[in-house]
Amino acid sequence: MKSLGSIRREFAPWNDPQAKAYISFENVTKRFGDFTAVNNLSLSIYEKEFFALLGASGCGKSTLLRMLAGFDEPTTGRILLDGQDMRGIPPYRRPVNMMFQSYALFPHMTVEANIGFGLKQEGMAKAEIEQRVAEMLKLVKLEQFAKRKPHQLSGGQRQRVALARSVAKRPKVLLLDEPLGALDKKLREETQFELMDLQQSLGLTFVVVTHDQEEAMTMADRIAILDKGEVMQVATPAEVYEAPISRFVAGFVGNVNMFEGTVAARDADSARITGASGAEIVVGNAGEAAAGNAVAFAIRPEKIKVSSRRPEGVANAMEGEVYDLAYLGDMTVYHVRLDDGQVVKASALNSSRASDDALSWNDRAWISFPPDAGVVLTR
Ligand code: ATP
């Protein structure tokens, strides 16, 4: 399949067979008693990559970060950083720093003292600390807040102090556990872009844990989707969205419609999928699926057109009734109940003010899509 690549920037060492991974998890398993939190997981992260670990609560994201930082060791398997096996190396001797979700700022210390704390502990000379702290304050645009204490700052400012503190020691890798978790939605969105800028200007490798798929999609070069301690897919945000490899991944990221069926026939550039009700879907690329396989055809709502009449000349069209309708300003989301009972979601951009094909509740409607609008999933 054609790689969709990174949209954000020209950076794709994972496509270069010569490129060496900077961080490697090799068959890492972590057990707590008889509970397996991470299960034989292998993963490569490249230098200067913005890498996101995405998954539901309890899937093992934080456990992976903690093992990378050195707060925990794998039960079996190994973690390499720049070619070096990290087993037995304590956290403070790893070129890694971790920014915790709680930020853990010292409440009695000023912003500048918080940022300089780790440097002082390391025994850095006073003048050098002052210079580095000033540099960090500038980086996170908090110069005029240097003398304030954390309780005199907003949530977003506290987050930036924590960031400045965690990059002050110039680690090679910064680990961020839900870095924006404490911020409200609007501030989160702004801060996502600040984080991306910071990562690029410092040339650091970022590994971010999040359960927020939009956040991972916005910020990361690549995303690992985890479930129950295993990797389900590692890919760029665009690939995860456009070319999920399983029903789980397709359903986890964004909205999707799934048509379950059986491959009735296929050749090199087309296939027919027959659903339980006998309705057929024509697809361009059936991937790994062979004739007779049970598959799901996954298609995103924005790839489906809704109209009041059967559209001419499209491969796939199905009839139903508008069952629900949500006007969201920039777009309208239709829920169409097909005559076989399946409810299909379709979204349409409201790019012109007057629609020439206005549909309302309970109207008969057609959904349609071309053969290459979705993916065929065997898993
Ligand atoms: P969340 O998003 O809720 O933080 P997570 O994906 O980061 O979740 P982890 O914290 O990595 O999840 O935990 C993975 C699993 O391992 C969980 O089921 C958790 O209960 C378990 N676990 C983590 N640490 C320990 C521990 N020290 N002892 C026993 N079980 C643990």
Outline the structure in words:
- With about 375 residues, the protein is of the alpha+beta class.
- It has 2 domains: about 15-95 and about 170-245, Rossmann fold; about 255-375, OB fold (Dihydrolipoamide Acetyltransferase, E2P).
- Helix content is about 20%, strand content about 35%.
- It contains 8 helices and 20 strands.
- The chain has helices at about 60-70, 110-120, 125-140, 155-170, 185-200, 215-220, 235-240, 245-250; strands at about 25-30, 35-45, 50-55, 75-80, 85, 95-100, 175, 205-210, 220-225, 230-235, 255-265, 270-275, 280-285, 295-300, 305, 315-325, 330-340, 345-350, 365-370, 375.
- The strands form 4 sheets. Strands 6-7-8-3-9-10 form a 6-stranded mixed β-sheet, with helices on both faces.
- Helix 2 packs across helix 3, helix 2 packs parallel to helix 4 (about 155-170) and helix 3 (about 125-140) crosses helix 4.
- The protein starts with about 20 loop residues before the first strand and ends with a strand.
- The model is unreliable at about 1-5 (pLDDT under 50).
- The structure holds adenosine-5'-triphosphate (ATP).
